[in-house]
Amino acid sequence: MDIIIAVGAVIAAVVVGVVIIGAALRSMRPKAPEPHVFTPSPTMARSVASTSTSTASASQLTPSAIAEVDRLVAAGQKIQAIKLYRQHTGARLQEAKDRIDHWSVSTTAPHLAAVSHAAAASSSITATPSSVRGALPASVVSEVDRLIAGDQKIHAIKLVREHTGFGLKQAKDIVEAWPGPRRL
Description:
There is one protein chain. By secondary structure, the protein is an all-alpha fold. The chain contains ten helices and no strands. It has helices spanning 2-28, 42-58, 63-74, 78-89, 93-101, 119-123, 129-135, 138-149, 153-164, 168-176. α9 crosses α10 (168-176). The longest helix has 27 residues, at 2-28.
């Protein structure tokens, strides 16, 4: 009698195991895709509204902001241009990046950045170290002279980039060929 109960328990355990394994295998079968009906969620409606608002606000850039973005794009400083564009429009990062990637430098916007001391250096077609030196304020020129004399070319490159808007390679080339201080 004990053997019959033991055999019955083993058979019951095997049956339960087979049922569990069968259910698990059935749930792993690929199923036909269910048709999806598009229903916009409340967050999606909000993001669509914010996209249309930011697109509308892009047309509300001030002339000085447009001029600054023009200057940054022309100087190859896309990251700073994207930051500035987002700051003035409130656009999302991807939208601002796409806008700056397709930005064409405005020919009608008043370029207020042209008034700055950096304009003479960055507006010349071929920027030579002498022309950059002549375009920068005397205090900046003396600081660059001091940094180069002190073998601190990295700091000099940073300073030239800050005041000219040049890219890293162009600023490095200018510092490498920087003329010495003028003697009177």
